[in-house]
């Protein structure tokens, strides 16, 4: 992934728009990364992937409920607080 300073991104915005059509570009300010700019196409693909993953998790949860594979909430919270899932 290419990286630009915020100042370069501002002064060469047209070039930045061309670069993001090929790959995401990281923008840094004061030496720290602050943003990533990507094409609309890549963003839409990322959003579709997120929705597919979320849908898959909901479908798995529905199957678990149908199969009676449930966990008592109080027991889960106790185990979580004890660091069982760390």
UniProtKB/TrEMBL annotation:
It holds the Pfam family PhdYeFM_antitox. The keyword Iron does not apply. Keywords: Plasmid. Belongs to the phD/YefM antitoxin family. Antitoxin component of a type II toxin-antitoxin (TA) system. This is Antitoxin. It comes from Vibrio alfacsensis.
